[in-house]
Design goal:
Elements (H helix, E strand, L loop, with lengths): L62 E5 L2 E7 L10 E7 L14 E6 L2 E8 L4 E7 L5 E7 L4 H15 L8
Length: 173
């Protein structure tokens, strides 16, 4: 797995989210096979806008990708003027719930995002942070912030973005 880092004026380029994130590679939860996860009705690029990220800088429009078991949209901080960039990504997971998140080095912290079950996973090795938010018993959406130097920088942003995005999710059944 490659490492994601921000860009600098010395090395041109654009930070991009990794092809997959280690904190979200769990097996699917058991289901009765009869219900369709509510996450299927969601498009990740519709859950957040560039304007929602204004307080963190000038972001580029969201870019959609299919990443293994997730439908993903990522927003890259513009690197105009040599400013270090970082990425905010939303990953809709149709067959992984909040309980299936994996510890990647700093434990799993249970959260409540506006009445929804959620969890935060920090990756201290790379400074990345993921907040997984319940959609239903089978699915979740992950807010991942990467490209910053520490989880002390990335986790507050991930939690803030999760709170902005949460009202756009379907009601918890």
């Amino acid at each position: 797995m490659g490492v994601l880092s921000g860009c600098s004026s010395e090395t041109p380029g654009v930070a991009e989210p990794p092809e997959s994130t280690p904190e979200v590679t769990s097996s699917a939860p058991e289901s009765d096979g009869n219900s369709v996860p509510r996450s299927r009705e969601l498009e990740p690029c519709d859950l957040l806008s560039v304007g929602d990220l204004d307080e963190y800088g000038a972001f580029e429009d969201g870019e959609y990708k299919d990443l293994g078991s997730a439908r993903s949209c990522s927003w890259q901080l513009s690197n105009e003027g040599g400013v270090d960039g970082f990425v905010v990504a939303l990953n809709v997971r149709d067959s992984q719930n909040v309980d299936s998140m994996n510890d990647v080095g700093a434990g799993i912290e249970n959260l409540n995002i506006d009445g929804r079950t959620a969890a935060r996973v920090e990756n201290p090795r790379y400074g990345d942070c993921t907040v997984g938010i319940e959609i239903d018993a089978q699915s979740r959406v992950d807010v991942t912030v990467n490209g910053l130097s520490s989880t002390e920088e990335s986790c507050p942003i991930a939690e803030d973005v999760a709170r902005v995005m949460e009202p756009r999710l379907p009601a918890v059944p």
